[in-house]
Amino acid sequence: MSQTKVFSFASGNDISQALSEFVAQASSEAIARSGRFTVAFSGGSLPATVCRFLVDNGDVDFAKWHVFWADERCVKLDDSESNFALVKSELLDPLTQAGRGIPADQVVHISEALVHDSAAAAADYQSRMEQVFADAAHAGSFPAFDCVLLGIGPDGHTCSLFPGHPLLEETTKWVASIDDSPKPPPRRITLTLPVVNHAARVAFVATGAGKRDMLKRIIESKDADLPAARVAPASGSVYWFLDSAAAQDLSAS
Ligand code: 6PG
């Protein structure tokens, strides 16, 4: 049964500091246990918030990281809409410049050659994920990420899993495509709900008063119409990193 912990911080800086420590601890625990750390990043505002202090965190053994994307837009890798590009500029490039780069074959991003065909891009992404999570692939199970980092949208979406979308009922695929995302751009690939719900840790990051009502519906009412409220890893934990504006209406904050 999954555990939920909600943390609220006075400023964006405080959230970034706490996330740096959270991810560093998740990384060292995973590396001590299995020799590697598997992490998936979302797009939007999340990479900048998570990575602000992480790059300079000397406790993190980035050489053992395997980096994935929780969802990705079907655009070129250098497009301003690319989630890969965000993580590249916030984490991958600064680490390389600091001489602590993550080996390129451990950074599993969408294939640029397939961005015109979201279904093919999703199938290709899953097959590369299966190489890293070979045991789960052989067992016909789902990969267990050490850490999945998620944002939420004003409609309660997370990853590219949108309210009312048939993709919410996916039960077998690890990665799926979507061609009708209500948030632009319309063509995307995304981890499926069963994969998110196999993670050891899911951390949601949400800031600003605009997300206040939605957070109450997700965290307190657990409104199953909202994809983010369906995130409950069977044997993992869910952590919420909020600023005080976002957390204001929560009864426990
Ligand atoms: C994307 C995202 C998406 C995002 C939320 C929150 O590619 O659009 O991965 O799920 O995380 O929409 O975005 P903000 O943090 O920018 O509000």
TrEMBL record:
SUPFAM superfamilies: NagB/RpiA/CoA transferase-like (SSF100950). Residues 13-240 form the Glucosamine/galactosamine-6-phosphate isomerase domain. One of its GO terms (biological process) is pentose-phosphate shunt. Hydrolysis of 6-phosphogluconolactone to 6-phosphogluconate. It is an enzyme of class 3 (hydrolase). The gene is SOL1. The keyword Hydrolase applies. Belongs to the glucosamine/galactosamine-6-phosphate isomerase family. 6-phosphogluconolactonase subfamily. Pathway: Carbohydrate degradation; pentose phosphate pathway; D-ribulose 5-phosphate from D-glucose 6-phosphate (oxidative stage): step 2/3. It comes from the Eukaryota. The lineage of its organism: Eukaryota, Fungi, Fungi incertae sedis, Zoopagomycota, Kickxellomycotina. This is 6-phosphogluconolactonase. Keywords: Hydrolase. InterPro entries: 6-phosphogluconolactonase_DevB (IPR005900), 6PGL (IPR039104), Glc/Gal-6P_isomerase (IPR006148), NagB/RpiA_transferase-like (IPR037171). One of its GO terms (molecular function) is 6-phosphogluconolactonase activity.
